[in-house]
Design a protein that fits this description.
alpha+beta; two-stranded parallel sheet; 2 helices
């Protein structure tokens, strides 16, 4: 339901986990990473390059160009 709101521009921003790179079809122009870690079973793990590229690949998927950046390095 949230993805429908975002795609139809009912909402302008989407705050999401790495799930955006795992099959949701979202009309994303810009992705801003706030962290390169995720929590699995109460342990913090760094997101590996494969996951970063998978998530970043969503930016610009429906348009010619997309933007991927990070708030800060960690």
């Amino acid at each position: 339901m949230q993805s429908e709101f975002f795609n139809t521009r009912v909402t302008k921003y989407l705050v999401a986990t790495n799930a955006i790179g795992l099959g949701l079809n979202l009309n994303i122009q810009r992705i801003i990473f706030t962290s390169f870690t995720k929590t699995l079973k109460s342990h913090h793990h760094k997101i590996d390059m494969h996951e970063i590229l998978q998530i970043a690949g969503r930016a610009g998927r429906y348009k010619e160009d997309g933007i991927v950046c990070a708030r800060h390095a960690n």
